[in-house]
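Summary for the lay section of the report: proteins are chains of building blocks that fold into shapes. Here we show the chain for TonB-like protein and then a coded description of the shape we predicted for it.
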Amino acid sequence: MPLKRTKKADLMAKYRRVFEISLIASLVIMIVAFKFFPDFGGKEVKIEGPQELFTVEDIQQTKQENRPPPPPKPPIPIEAPSDEVLEDIEIGETEIDINANVEAPPPPPKEDKKIVEEEPQYFVAVEEMPEPIGGIQAIQSKIVYPEIAKRAGVEGKVYVLAFVDENGDVRDAKIIKGIGAGCDEAALDAVKKTKFKPGKQRGKPVRVQVSIPVVFKLQ
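The coded shape description reads as follows.
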């Protein structure tokens, strides 16, 4: 059965009234105390001890006396030449003869002017490319098969770049792709000895560079 709280046993209901009554009583006590007992009979605090007196003395200002400047540094002694040294010195003549014939200075050396020859320009592609007279067989007939290549059984194709002028002559040649064993040199020699039909551009002979394959095959 639950317990029921009665009004007499409930202390929280009387808490507010008790707090108000106690606050009023404390204020009344404070007002009465300040009204009827204003003086608490305080005593003056005295500090006992010897007192020291300080005397202020006048300090005389000192005057700076003008001191003389420091003496200059002594000069560094320099040894003077003796009479014997002066006698050994010969002074040349400084007079200029106006009537004397003065030779003109030699002309500056002439600089050797090197004449730089311009490299001929060769076409890469033209209307009519150069062709060896007699065909590729003319080049193949001039090939001397190297003995080293024969013994080693070297076979293959060497590509030579030939520079053919407007007269059909091979001015220069170089290897584009070789096989070695002396075959490259043999191919260059055969191409340089071959006469070409010059290349033409618009009906006019021109300089052209052309690639030529040279075959090396053992029989």
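Put simply, here is one thing we learned. Strands lie at 131-132, 156-164, 170-177, 196-197, 199-201, 204-206, 208-216.
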